Amino acid sequence: MAAEHCTPSPYPRRLSLQEDDLSCAVCCDIFKDPVILSCSHSFCKACLQEYCRGKAEKESPFLREEEDVRIAVLREEEEQKSQVMKEKIEEMSREISSLSDTIRALEEELRAEDISFLKVSTALSKLT
After folding, report:
1. DSSP code of residue 56
2. Which H or E run includes 19?
3. Which of 3, 14, 66, 73 shows a CA-CA span of 20 to 30 A to 92?
4. Where are the beta strands (DSSP E) in 2-128?
5. For the segment 12-55, what is each residue's pLDDT rounded down to a tens digit?
6. For 128, which DSSP code?
7. Strand 34-36 and strand 42-44: pairing?
8. With 0-12 CB in 10 A as exposed, 13-18 as middle and 19+ as buried, what is 83?
9. Which phi and psi angles does 30 have, rounded to 5°?
10. Cα–Cα distance, 28 to 43 (Å, whole number)
């Protein structure tokens, strides 16, 4: 539950700056038994305990959300780079195949010229 998911009251009240500073971002209410984390975020003790239930590490819900976003961005970037590398490898494979074909054709051509040269050379030696 983040602040943007708080359900507005049918009777909207205006928080003063001081009240806003004393509001839990999870339940959107004035802190009840406030807890301040090492990252300086504050939450109600009950809200934090509910959030952290089952988690090995107690961390700020906002920091966890930021981490999830960063991980998603990194995964997307990794997928894009992987696709680019795959395309480059495929292109290089096609180029290598093309070069191999060219080399084979040149080798065959040279063998054919060698045979012709040998025939001419043998014929000339018989004449002399």
Report:
1. S
2. helix 17-21
3. 73
4. 34-36, 42-44
5. 444 445 666 788 888 988 889 998 888 888 889 998 888 777 56
6. -
7. antiparallel
8. exposed
9. -65, 140
10. 10
CA dist 109 → 27, 102, 122, 124 (Å): 82, 11, 20, 23
Polymer length of the chain: 128
State how far the alpha carbon of 75 is from the alpha carbons of 71, 72, 103, in Å: 6, 5, 41
Residue 37: Cβ within 10 Å count: 15
Q: Which residue's structure tokens are 């806003």?
A: 20
Alpha-carbon dihedral 85, 90, 96, 100, rounded to 10 degrees: 160
pLDDT tens sequence across 47-92: 888 877 756 455 566 777 788 888 889 899 999 999 999 999 999 9
